[in-house]
């Protein structure tokens, strides 16, 4: 599978997935029709499907227009978002397998940013996962429709994927996220090294995706509620937080909301 990051809107990414024949393609999250169709045409691809991670406008804004422009196009999304993902044709349940553009994937139900959020996991050919607004590079999405506990469960599901899994997220937030991570764990060398790499990529105008599950486990504060240094940083700001990992996570999220 070839993955092409398509910058959309201010800081969103759509991901064009090109199948093994080099011609059939799908797009993960289509916020705008025009740049996606332009890229598809420029590369001479046959766009067969949209894979929508969740119903927010900056992820599905182009669904209707692309569906009109490409009769027969399939739109995959969460069964829980049946009424919220425009032009939906294939409503997927948790762990449900699917095929699109000659690629075999699996839907992972990861609610909390929204109550219907899906990730798309492709196990073959160097595993890859498309995490929408749930797992970012060194961050996680805001809790619009779920609890801290639910977000922890959803993130744990992603963290349980193979270490080498490439992580493609919905927004370019990596630099700011890593600055926040560094505040909480100034002694974590993996965070310092990754921030330096990300700053260099951004200076060159390059995307900072993909990350990997292994890198996220080392650097992402929302996967690191067990870290003694992170816990100490949270306790310094919230002396009454206690030892409960969910409480540590919730305070980490609260701090990030204000960062
Ligand atoms: Zn969102």
In helices, the fraction of residues equals 25-40%
Low-pLDDT residue spans: none
Given helix and strand content, the structural type is: alpha/beta
* Estimated radius of gyration: 18 Å
Ligands: zinc ion
CA distance, first residue to last residue: 37 Å
Q: Overall 3D geometry?
A: globular
Strand order of the largest sheet: 1-2-3-4-5-6
Q: State mean pLDDT (0 to 100 scale).
A: 97
- How big a fraction of the residues is strand? 15-25%
Largest sheet: 6 strands, mixed
Count of individual beta strands: 14
How would you spell out the order of helices and strands? EEEHEHHEEEEEEEEHEHHEHHH
* Helix count from the secondary structure assignment: 9
Outline of this structure?
35% of the residues lie in helices and 24% in strands. It is an alpha/beta fold and 259 residues long. The strands form three sheets. It has a six-stranded mixed beta sheet, with helices on one face. Strands 7-8-9-10-13-14 form a six-stranded mixed beta sheet.
Question: What report would you give on this structure?
Answer:
With 259 residues, the protein is an alpha/beta fold. It is 35% helix and 24% strand. It is built from 9 helices and 14 strands. The protein has helices spanning 33-42, 57-60, 63-69, 148-159, 174-184, 189-203, 213-219, 228-237, 245-258; strands at residues 2-8, 12-18, 24-28, 46-51, 74-78, 90-92, 97-100, 103-109, 118-122, 128-130, 135-136, 139-140, 166-168, 211-212. It has a 6-stranded mixed beta sheet with strand order 1-2-3-4-5-6, covered by helices on one side. Strands 7-8-9-10-13-14 form a 6-stranded mixed beta sheet. It has a two-stranded antiparallel sheet with strand order 11-12. Helix 5 (174-184) packs antiparallel against helix 6 (189-203). The chain is globular and about 60 Å long. The mean pLDDT is 97. The structure holds zinc ion. Zinc ion is lined by residues 54, 56, 113, 133.
